[in-house]
Amino acid sequence: MAIRKVARLGHPVLREKTREVSREEISSPEMRRLVRDMVETMHEYGGVGLAAPQVHESIRLAIIEFDGDDERYQHPDKDEGQPLLVIWNARVKVLDATPSGFWEGCLSVPGLRGYVERPSKIEVSYLDERGKPKTIVAEGFLATVFQHELDHLDGVVYVDKITDKTKLAFSEEYARYHAEEGEPPIAE
Ligand code: NI
Questions:
Q1: pLDDT in tens, 12-55
Q2: Cβ distance 115 to 101 under 8 Å?
Q3: What residues have their beta carbon closer than 5 A to ion ligand 1?
Q4: 149 catalytic, yes or no?
Q5: DSSP code per residue over 13-48
Q6: Which of these CATH numbers, 3.40.50.300, 3.40.50.620, 1.10.10.60, 3.90.45.10, describes 12-181?
Q7: Is the pTM of this model over 0.85?
Q8: 57, 104, 149, 188: which is the annotated catalytic residue?
Q9: Mean pLDDT over residues 53-75, rounded?
Q10: Which of 8, 131, 150, 159 is the most exposed place for a label (fewest CB within 10 A)?
């Protein structure tokens, strides 16, 4: 396993539209190694998700994992945590467009936090690590993490979706002036 270098905002790979991957390719040694490296990289930098373009791979792959009792990301919506999800070729359908707002962060935009509103309930169809079709319905925190990661696969970064630019802040200023109970930042 290896920790991969994370692309930062401004690198063109973060703005590319990724390609889908065949089931045969998903089970290849190269892709299995990539998934393992992404998990190690996400753990190393303390993210709750990571998308393949962030490690310079322009393919439709993301991972999500977070601990329910991780103090950095405490939130009423994520009491139970989310065991590792390996998400290939994901497609999203909005089930409830009512906006749900969170302060987000991104391993590709280090040191910043921004407030983003996204649909509160979605359905995601994807292939799992074995290439098996799966569908998951996500709400609240998990829905936001999904949409943040899957946006990366279309060349979209969370800062694009900050509608109120006064709600973009460095982490320290976020903690000092913007953090409210129940509204912790998300690092992805
Ligand atoms: Ni991100």
A1: 999 999 999 999 999 999 999 999 999 999 999 999 999 999 99
A2: yes
A3: 106, 188
A4: yes
A5: GGGSPPBP--HHHHTSHHHHHHHHHHHHHHHHHT-S
A6: 3.90.45.10
A7: yes
A8: 149
A9: 83
A10: 8
